């Protein structure tokens, strides 16, 4: 933000050798990743590979043990928080607020008075298919609707970088497909630099310009490739595209080799088989609840 | 509706049993007044009972108000300042361990004969459930939600106002429900330690003077008072937390 006057093609987000461990457990080991302006990068990996930790590090909610996270050139956690719109896996809508006030919360947190915040949030409901639901309480909304409201709240924060943590992980597959299309369209309307974390390979490829594959714990980037599919994308058209199928296979291959390769120099006895990497209570901060489903298999 | 009928049926059964036991020859009239005698006393002594009930009600309401105000201030302060919570929590628990029966006469000595000691006793026993429940409520917010607020750039006060206090409101009402019922007990103890008016004093006096029906009438009124206060809290909760409506026996 403060560096706006500098050279325009500034890297909005970069991770250099980022390492994070919880006591003895290494969650992330030397993550290297850089995003270009308005690029959507998806990080795929098995459950428990430290994906949520990665996002919290970028969001400035945790600090790395080694390495640097930079967002718009700044590395201080407070600067990271100010530059990133963080959308957790669960919608976390406040049950006592209606949808409009829930979205407007992002503005209120920046000191905008409630009525003004609601007034400014209202046009987004119109634009993103939530008209007429402004006054509904979260309990009256479907899972997909709630996720949309949560996304609007993230957008209204007005941050240049968006961090999405398994945004549709809790939705059923039909709703999820619809929401992926919705998010793709929303990002065409409101282009942002996006770091998206998911365990769904197809979701990653459909939404992203680039996919980074993470190994099981400790998480490292083991493959990275561009998704050169034209935008705007339509889910229906894209699943029939052979190029899409090729990319999915490529990601799945990378995930599989990552799961098979020895995890650390040293012995096998201590390291449990990585394939079943669902035992994530140590690498994920308590309660983020990503540890429910393993990597999606082939379609 | 079914709930109301069931409750009324049980109450009816209880009154019948009461009448039955009271009608037994082996039961002395001075020991147990029957429902009919009690109702009679309610009618004939109505103005006396009403005057005294009013005094007790004022003690209870003022005591509740004081404990609510103090409880909210204390709970929020303890929530915001961790050292204060660590320091004050044991004292808070200790304040409940002191038997009110012992404390009441001391309060009367300290605060004189009037409204003061009753109010202090009611406030003292209501303060605990209110403060502890509210404190629990303030701490009930999920860590993930607090993380989200932090990433949204919310100040400590904003998080308190927009997230923690609304989330704690149902807890506060739980505390108030307990407080509403024990408040009446507190007022009675306060009056027993020394008072010139109030239902508690009337019951004590009636007991000494062997006016058993009047004693029972007083007890019935005290019970009704507590139940009415409880119902009022339930009603207030429904108005204040419409998002939190679950089927709860009122």
Notes on the structure:
The complex is a heterodimer of chains A (299) and B (250). Chain A is of the alpha/beta class and 299 residues long. Chain A has a domain at 13-91 and 160-263: P-loop containing nucleotide triphosphate hydrolases (Rossmann fold, 3-Layer(aba) Sandwich). Chain A contains nine helices and nine strands. Chain A has helices at residues 51-58, 77-83, 99-108, 114-127, 143-156, 173-189, 201-207, 235-240, 242-260; strands at residues 13-22, 25-35, 40-44, 66-71, 84-87, 161-165, 193-198, 210-214, 221-226. In chain A, strands 5-6-7-3-8-9 form a six-stranded mixed sheet, sandwiched between helices. A three-stranded antiparallel sheet of chain A has the order 2-1-4. With 250 residues, chain B is mainly α. Helices cover 82% and strands 0% of the residues of chain B. Chain B contains ten helices and no strands. In chain B, helix 9 (199-208) packs antiparallel against helix 10 (212-240). The termini of chain B are close together. Classes of the chains: A alpha/beta (299), B mainly alpha (250). Chains A and B meet through strand 5 and helix 3 of A and helix 7 and helix 8 of B.
What's the helix and strand layout?
The complex is a heterodimer of chains A (299) and B (250).
Chain A: E1 13-22, E2 25-35, E3 40-44, H1 51-58, E4 66-71, H2 77-83, E5 84-87, H3 99-108, H4 114-127, H5 143-156, E6 161-165, H6 173-189, E7 193-198, H7 201-207, E8 210-214, E9 221-226, H8 235-240, H9 242-260
Parallel strand pairs in A: 3-7, 3-8, 5-6, 6-7
Antiparallel strand pairs in A: 1-2, 1-4, 8-9
Chain B: H1 2-23, H2 35-44, H3 46-80, H4 82-97, H5 100-111, H6 115-138, H7 143-151, H8 156-192, H9 199-208, H10 212-240
Helix pairs in contact in B: 2-10, 3-4, 3-6, 3-8, 3-9, 5-6, 5-8, 6-8, 8-9, 8-10, 9-10
Largest sheet of chain A: 6 strands, mixed
Helix content of chain B: over 70%
Instruction: Please tell me what the overall shape of chain A is.
Output: globular
| Portion in strands of chain B | under 5%
Most residues in contact, chain pair and counts: A-B, 28 and 20 residues
Q: What overall geometry of chain B do the principal axes of the alpha carbons give?
A: globular
Kindly report the name of the CATH homologous superfamily of the domain at 13-91 and 160-263 in chain A: P-loop containing nucleotide triphosphate hydrolases
Q: What is the tally of beta strands of chain A?
A: 9
Helix count of chain B equals: 10
The main pleated sheet of chain B reads as: none
Oligomer: heterodimer
Give the CA-CA distance, first to last residue of chain A.
42 Å
Radius of gyration of chain B: 22 Å
Extract low-pLDDT stretches of chain A: 1-8, 264-299
Distance between the termini of chain B: 12 Å
């Amino acid at each position: 933000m403060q560096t706006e006057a500098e050279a325009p093609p500034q890297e909005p987000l970069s991770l250099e050798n980022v390492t994070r461990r919880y006591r003895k457990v290494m969650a992330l080991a030397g993550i290297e990743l850089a995003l270009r302006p308005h690029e959507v990068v998806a990080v795929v990996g098995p459950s428990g590979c430290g994906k949520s930790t990665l996002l919290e590090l970028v969001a400035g909610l945790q600090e790395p043990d080694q390495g640097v996270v930079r967002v718009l050139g700044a590395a201080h956690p407070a600067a990271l928080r100010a530059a990133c719109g963080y959308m957790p896996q669960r919608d976390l809508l406040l049950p006592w607020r209606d949808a409009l006030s829930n979205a407007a919360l992002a503005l209120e947190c920046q000191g905008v008075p409630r009525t003004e915040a609601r007034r400014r949030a209202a046009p987004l409901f119109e634009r993103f298919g939530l008209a007429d639901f402004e006054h509904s309480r979260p309990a009256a909304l479907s899972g997909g609707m709630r996720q949309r409201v949560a996304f609007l709240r993230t957008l209204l924060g007005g941050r240049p970088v968006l961090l999405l943590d398994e945004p549709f992980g809790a939705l059923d597959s039909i709703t999820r497909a619809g929401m992926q299309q919705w998010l793709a369209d929303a990002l065409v309307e409101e282009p942002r630099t996006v770091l998206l974390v998911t365990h769904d390979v197809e979701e990653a490829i459909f939404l992203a310009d680039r996919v980074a594959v993470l190994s099981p714990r400790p998480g490292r980037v083991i493959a990275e490739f561009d998704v050169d599919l034209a935008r705007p994308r339509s889910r229906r058209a894209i699943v029939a595209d052979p190029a899409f199928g090729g990319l999915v296979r490529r990601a799945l291959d990378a995930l599989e080799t990552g799961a098979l390769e020895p995890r650390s120099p040293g012995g096998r006895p201590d390291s449990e088989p990585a394939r079943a990497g669902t035992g994530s209570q140590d690498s994920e901060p308590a309660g983020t609840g990503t540890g429910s489903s393993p990597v999606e298999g082939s379609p | 509706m079914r709930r109301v009928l069931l409750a009324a049926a049980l109450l009816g059964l209880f009154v019948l049993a009461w009448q039955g036991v009271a009608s037994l020859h082996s039961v002395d009239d001075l020991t147990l007044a029957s429902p009919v005698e009690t109702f009679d006393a309610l009618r004939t002594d109505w103005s006396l009972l009403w005057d005294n009930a009013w005094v007790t009600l004022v003690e209870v309401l003022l005591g509740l108000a004081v404990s609510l105000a103090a409880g909210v201030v204390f709970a929020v302060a303890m929530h915001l300042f961790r050292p204060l919570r660590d320091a004050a929590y044991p004292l808070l628990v200790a304040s409940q361990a002191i038997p009110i029966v012992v404390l009441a006469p001391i309060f009367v000595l300290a605060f004189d004969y009037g409204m003061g000691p009753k109010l202090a006793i009611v406030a003292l026993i209501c303060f605990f459930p209110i403060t502890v429940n509210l404190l629990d409520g303030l701490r009930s917010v999920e860590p993930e939600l607090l993380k989200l607020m932090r990433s949204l750039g919310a100040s400590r006060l904003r998080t308190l106002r927009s997230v923690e206090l609304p989330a704690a409101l149902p807890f506060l009402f739980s505390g108030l429900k307990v407080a509403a019922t024990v408040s009446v007990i507190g007022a009675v103890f306060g009056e027993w330690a020394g008072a010139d008016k109030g239902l508690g004093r009337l019951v004590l006096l009636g007991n000494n003077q062997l006016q058993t029906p009047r004693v029972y009438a007083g007890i019935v009124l005290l019970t009704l008072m507590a139940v009415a206060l409880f119902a009022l809290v339930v009603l207030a909760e429904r108005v204040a937390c419409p998002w939190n409506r679950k089927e709860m026996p009122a």
